[in-house]
């Protein structure tokens, strides 16, 4: 279990049980006592008020008024919320859009300056449009949860992305590209990238991408994506 999952588990256990011991938490999350103590210290640094009482009947208690979601959300998690709201709005299925926007604004206010800048940079890479009725979506698949964290690193650090891609005919190839944008045409989601080998932009359906991997090395430059010419592609891409 990684650090973030441990922290989430500890908060969840303390909220559910009210009181727990360090040893009890260690058993439940499968970590050492020393690790739990470090995690408790880290949670306190994040703003969680965790009381500690010694002696029989004592233990750790979480002040419910200190549970702050904004301190717990990462940039990519907030980005996922924003693009989900944006895609639902584009599809005409977001009846409470004003409330959703207000909630997201409150979350963003709890971010540090660095996180806000990263979030803005990710939003600059996001385009939402309407899907052409001529587009075939009969073979729509699921999008892997590992894609968005990989996209975050590629977009923010401007690093190449390598992945396995399955085209419309089921042929799989390994592609290495320069990610430039995310295009959402509900229910289809595309990664728009510059393919240096083909010297052109390519649209990759996200439900056909798997095993994304960041390629460490030289950074690529940001390019202007000509969405004005064709923001709603209906042909089966990429070629």
From TrEMBL:
Q: Which UniProt keywords apply?
A: Transcription, Transcription regulation
**From what superkingdom does this record's organism come?**
Bacteria
User: Record keywords: Zinc-finger included?
Assistant: no
The HTH deoR-type domain, residue ranges? 3-58
Q: Which Pfam families match?
A: HTH_11 (PF08279), WYL (PF13280)
Q: Mind telling me which InterPro entries this protein's record contains?
A: CBASS_pafABC_assoc_protein (IPR051534), DeoR_HTH (IPR001034), HTH_11 (IPR013196), WH-like_DNA-bd_sf (IPR036388), WH_DNA-bd_sf (IPR036390), WYL_dom (IPR026881)
Return the PROSITE patterns for the record: HTH_DEOR_2, WYL
Q: Which residues cross the membrane?
A: none
GO terms of molecular function: DNA-binding transcription factor activity
Family annotation (PANTHER family): PROTEIN PAFC, PTHR34580
Q: What's the protein called, per UniProt?
A: Probable deoR-family transcriptional regulator
Species the sequence originates in: Roseibium aggregatum (strain ATCC 25650 / DSM 13394 / JCM 20685 / NBRC 16684 / NCIMB 2208 / IAM 12614 / B1) (Stappia aggregata)
